[in-house]
Each structure stands twice: as structure tokens, then as C-alpha cells.
Automatic annotation (TrEMBL):
KW Membrane (keyword) present: no
InterPro entries found in the cross-reference section: Cro/C1-type_HTH, Lambda_DNA-bd_dom_sf
GO molecular-function term, one example from the UniProt record: DNA binding
Name used for this protein in its record: Putative transcriptional regulator
Amino acid sequence: MNFFIRQLREDKDLTQTEIAAYLNCSQRIYSNYERGEVDLPTGILIKLAEFHETSTDYLLNRTNRKKPYPKN
């Protein structure tokens, strides 16, 4: 999972500090998420999926489909 959130962040030329501020956590905690040292809490996972306009399944490496699912 860490590869996907890091790649998405780097694709937008954002720093870990900028993403951490959006998630309301420290840069160190966010860095732990990217390195896979700490599992992403559900709320953080959802916020990252919304921010990057993708699905939680993509972030969890359960699909190659980067595009989010349609909302009902």
C-alpha cells in the first residue's frame, strides 16, 4: 500500500508535510503510513482516496482501476 500513496503524492508534487496537514496528523505519522510501518486507519484511508480521487480498493492494492467507483 505504501507505494500507492507515495506515488499519488509525488504525482501531485506534494510533500509529506502537506498531505499530513490535510489529514490532520504529523509528518512523521504520515511517513509511517507511506513506509507501511503503520496500517492506515479507515478514516485516513477514506480521506486519502477522496483527496486523490481514487478508490480505497486502489489504495489497498485490490484493483488496478485508479478511477473511483461511481457514487449512487
